[in-house]
């Protein structure tokens, strides 16, 4: 199965799931992977910052798991007068030792 987000290609096998981190424990479980991308964010501040950004600006955190979190993505869906709705992926990271195939590519479905 291949899921596509604009210019990012993510190949997902059938044992993996993409979920939204909604509960506090789900957000906290994303921290070790996100910390590889954002090492300046401390573990004790991560939950508070994600929840604040979610309340203020609609930030969402998604993760790919097969029982272990392998990929995290922080994103917002917003709207501009000029262009309408858009998806802004702000944070995208694959766990360093993961075998996942996550690549930036000039890819579009169709």
Could you walk me through the main structural features you see in this protein, from its secondary elements to its overall organization?
The chain is α+β, with helices and mostly antiparallel strands and 110 residues long. It has one domain: Aminopeptidase (3-Layer(aba) Sandwich). The chain is 26% helix and 40% strand. It has 2 helices and 7 strands. It has helices at 24-37, 43-57, and strands at 2-5, 8-11, 17-20, 60-65, 69-80, 84-94, 102-104. The strands form 2 sheets. A 4-stranded antiparallel sheet has the order 3-4-5-6. The protein has a 3-stranded antiparallel sheet with strand order 1-2-7, with no helix packed on it. Strand 5 (69-80) and strand 6 form a beta hairpin. Helix 1 packs across helix 2. Mean pLDDT is 82; it is low at 1-8 and 100-110.
Q: Which features would summarize this protein structure in a list?
A:
110 residues, alpha+beta, Aminopeptidase, four-stranded antiparallel β-sheet, three-stranded antiparallel β-sheet, 2 helices, globular, disordered N terminus, disordered C terminus
């Amino acid at each position: 199965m291949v899921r596509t987000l604009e210019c990012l290609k993510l190949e997902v096998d059938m044992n993996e799931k993409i979920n939204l981190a909604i509960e506090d424990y789900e957000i906290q479980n994303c921290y070790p992977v996100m910390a590889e991308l954002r090492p300046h964010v401390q573990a004790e501040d991560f939950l508070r910052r994600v929840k604040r950004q979610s309340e203020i600006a609609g930030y969402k955190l998604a993760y790919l798991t097969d029982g272990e979190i392998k990929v995290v993505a922080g994103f917002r869906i917003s709207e501009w007068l000029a262009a309408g709705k858009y998806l802004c992926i702000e944070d995208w990271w694959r766990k360093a030792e993961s075998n996942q195939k996550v690549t930036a590519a000039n890819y579009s479905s169709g």
